[in-house]
Amino acid sequence: MQPKSNIVHLPVYKPGKPIEDVKRELGLSEVIKLASNENPFGFSNFAKSAIQEQLQQINYYPDGASVELTSALATHLLVKPEQLIFGTGSSDIILMIARAFLTLEDETIMAEETFSQYKHNAEVENAIVVEVPLVDGKHDLVAMQAAITERTKIIWICNPNNPTGTIVTNEELVAFLDKVPDHVMVVLDEAYGEYVEDPSFSNGIQLLDKYHNLVLLRTFSKIYGLASLRIGYGIGDPEIIAYINQVREPFNTTRLAQVAAKAALADDAFLSYCREQNRAGIDFINQELERLGLDYFPAHGNFVMFDAKRASSEVFQSLLQKGIVARAGWKNYPNWIRISVGTMPQNEKFIAALEQVLQEVTVQ
Ligand SMILES: Cc1ncc(COP(=O)(O)O)c(C=O)c1O
């Protein structure tokens, strides 16, 4: 039996190593997972109550069109309901965009080190992936614009960028969007947008009125802490959203996810708390990295990427032995590690482990 030739070489997505696996494999009693940029502060109690109430209904299919959640989110974001689409995480929106818009030999532009699923889904659709190197960990929007050809269909911008945590500013984004032809879609992935405090950061929603080719991606997996419920959304021009909706699986978001997301929207206090704790965590980690003489990218999401000055695979393994699951393995950053911001005790344990690792692993 022959699969599509373009998928044969594709890697299976490698998630951050689960805590239970690490405990079992290494015989450790305590393991801290700082590998998937999850929210270490849990999730809103409003969402918990909504889930508990909805449990009585799980024998019924969910509302495929997420009508109540759409209406609540449209009010929350001040957009029209027709501008919204929900997915099984924002990963599902990436998949649907690729499925609806990319075909054989279309070109699609993205940063060389960014969220892996843009490339993965483009390759599934047989599109040609054009990767543009980052500069100082940041999207090079000038080079990305220069890479546009008559075959370009979609440009992906991750803001803040995963794995580097850097942002493109509103000014840079507007200058870029002004030069992108109308028929080229720009997908702006704001998975970590709610964490950003830098005033130069754009809120993509403000750009939607002017740029009809712009689609935003957001998720309830990060600051809202609902990663395992799998719910994210896209925001864009109603015509584009309608096309994406045509390839959506009938019941792609669950009842529990829909009610939890709707309830979570009302809990501003939880978001503010997470933002504050995250900022304190970043400040602590940065200060400790400086003390240890290590460089890092300016972190705007809930993770920090730093130069361990040693082979990242060895640093990763050595951290793992000490019960810290980090992330490594970026082609252009062979010595860099990405660490999610944890609770303060977790951040302290990570720094203590890193300090030992730096003694054990040879400098490159
Ligand atoms: C930049 C970015 N976009 C999208 C996602 C997908 O998140 P989810 O599918 O959980 O919404 C992630 C997950 O790590 C991410 O880092």
Automatic annotation (TrEMBL):
It holds the Pfam family Aminotran_1_2. InterPro entries: Aminotransferase_I/II_large, HisP_aminotrans, HistidinolP_aminotransfase, PyrdxlP-dep_Trfase, PyrdxlP-dep_Trfase_major, PyrdxlP-dep_Trfase_small. It comes from the Bacteria. One of its GO terms (molecular function) is histidinol-phosphate transaminase activity. It catalyses: L-histidinol phosphate + 2-oxoglutarate = 3-(imidazol-4-yl)-2-oxopropyl phosphate + L-glutamate. SUPFAM superfamilies: PLP-dependent transferases. Keywords: Amino-acid biosynthesis, Aminotransferase, Histidine biosynthesis, Pyridoxal phosphate, Transferase. Pathway: Amino-acid biosynthesis; L-histidine biosynthesis; L-histidine from 5-phospho-alpha-D-ribose 1-diphosphate: step 7/9. Residues 30-354 form the Aminotransferase class I/classII large domain. Its cofactor is pyridoxal 5'-phosphate. The modification N6-(pyridoxal phosphate)lysine is found at K222. It is an enzyme of class 2 (transferase). Its EC number is 2.6.1.9. Belongs to the class-II pyridoxal-phosphate-dependent aminotransferase family. Histidinol-phosphate aminotransferase subfamily. Homodimer. This is Histidinol-phosphate aminotransferase. It comes from Paenibacillus yanchengensis.
